[in-house]
Design a protein that fits this description.
Elements (H helix, E strand, L loop, with lengths): L15 H15 L24 H58 L2 H20 L5 H18 L3 E4 L11 E8 L8 E6 L1 E4 L2 E4 L1 E7 L5 H8 L1
Helix pairs in contact: 3-4
Length: 230
């Protein structure tokens, strides 16, 4: 048959795209090494920004700015922490001082809280002293008054109250109050000659001074002056 192929012959159809790729591949492989593609350098005049910094420099500037900002914020934070710490120390010191002051006030209240009542009771002791001074030694009531006064003073002593006498002592304005002057030559001037009322202390703090009369030198007599002139 005329339409039949000869024995051993082979025929197929190849797409044109495949043929084009094969041709380009052969051309690339057959190109001499000297004709290898060289990267194209772009001059500053042809493109790009001539004044632009390299990317590494820009990154360094950004990191430096972030570091300075971080350091500034750290300093501000440290200042705030320091101020808060100082305020806390001052508050703690104020609290400690308040506690000490409150403790002192509490102790003083326990010691001297009954001072006003004591001052109201002292005239009662004064009257008992006057009754004893006016009573005769053999008066049977005197022993009873003395017992009452002793018991009264023992009760006051349990609360820190002590009485003291100033008779025969030198006048001390810190513990004595002079009500009168007593002209005399029997005692040196400034000696307590008369005691109108005893003094009292409450926990060693003066509550009432002793009410006294103090010795003074008597005035010179007119006769002594005339004798001196003769």
């Amino acid at each position: 048959m005329s339409n039949k192929h000869a024995k051993g012959s082979f025929k197929t159809e190849i797409p044109s795209e495949v043929m084009d790729d094969a041709v380009r591949s052969v051309e690339r492989n057959s190109r001499p090494p000297d004709e290898a593609e060289v990267p194209v350098e772009v001059s500053p005049d042809e493109g790009g920004d001539a004044g632009a910094a390299p990317p590494e420099a820009a990154d360094a500037e950004g990191l430096r700015g972030q570091l300075e900002l971080s350091q500034q914020k750290s300093r501000e934070t440290m200042e705030r922490l320091k101020e808060a710490h100082d305020r806390m120390l001052r508050a703690a010191a104020d609290l400690e001082n308040y506690k000490k002051r409150a403790q002192r006030e509490k102790e003083e209240l326990q010691k001297f809280g009954n001072e006003k009542l004591l001052k109201e009771l002292l005239p009662v002791l004064d009257n008992l002293d006057r009754a004893l001074a006016a009573a005769a030694a053999d008066d049977p009531l005197r022993a009873g008054v003395l017992l009452v006064r002793t018991s009264f003073e023992q009760v006051l002593a349990r609360y820190g109250v002590k009485g003291f006498s100033a008779l025969g002592q030198s006048f001390d304005p810190a513990f004595h109050e002079a009500l009168m002057q007593v002209p005399t030559q029997e005692k040196p001037a400034g000696t307590v000659m008369v005691e109108h009322a005893r003094g009292f202390t409450l926990h060693d703090r003066l509550v009432r001074p002793a009410l006294v009369g103090v010795a003074v030198a008597p005035p010179a007599s007119p006769d002594a002056g005339s004798e001196t002139k003769e």
